[in-house]
Amino acid sequence: MYVGVTCDGSTGSSSDLSLHVYAFDVATSTWSASPVFTLNSPLRPIAQGNWNNWNNTFVQGPDFNTNPQPLLSDIDFDNNGDMILGVLDVYGIKTGHDNYRNVTTDFGLYDVIIFGDILRATKSGSTWTNNVGSGGVEYYGNDNGVSNGSFPNLSIQSDACAGGISSVCGLTKVMMSATDPAGAITNGVIVLNNTKVFILQGIQ
Length: 204
Ligand SMILES: [Ca+2]
Ligand SMILES: [Ca+2]
Ligand SMILES: [Ca+2]
What we know:
Blueprint (H helix, E strand, L loop, with lengths): L1 E6 L10 E8 L4 E2 L4 E2 L32 E8 L5 E7 L1 H5 L21 E8 L2 E4 L30 E7 L5 E7 L7 E7 L5 E5 L1
Antiparallel strand pairs: 1-2, 2-3, 2-4, 5-6, 6-7, 7-8, 9-10, 10-11, 11-12
Bound molecules: calcium ion (3 copies).
């Protein structure tokens, strides 16, 4: 059994953020040491997508509001034993669509863009490599939503995972729940190829 843990930095700073996956051997009732996955640049392509420690600050952005805060929300495995991790941006849960902000005198309705993520953890011996593809960029570089061009500061939704992932043993694809898979203001899934790292399709 595998258990995901998020160090959310809520009493510290974004440098305290990390993800952990512990393995529990049911037969022997023992826990393994956990590989630690750090977050943030350079594997988050745009500045607005950088992870922050968990906080309750409403952040007014140039188009939508963004304040990405991570939660390790899903663990799947590829055929070769690599882990595929889903990371939910909990700012979207704290805020929502067309909702009030946390200021009692403001009755305006606000919208957000979340920047979740899909990470791949590749094991070599006892060492795990976090989310690094060839050239040192994010492994699933095409985990992007699609903009309709209406929001110039967010010309691309660079990390569109909405936290859920699904990988089927024997297949080379992984499916993730996603924001903007078929244009701006859509929800659905994006299908990624595990080996060539192409986006296969976005489905609303
Ligand atoms: Ca990306
Ligand atoms: Ca990404
Ligand atoms: Ca899953």
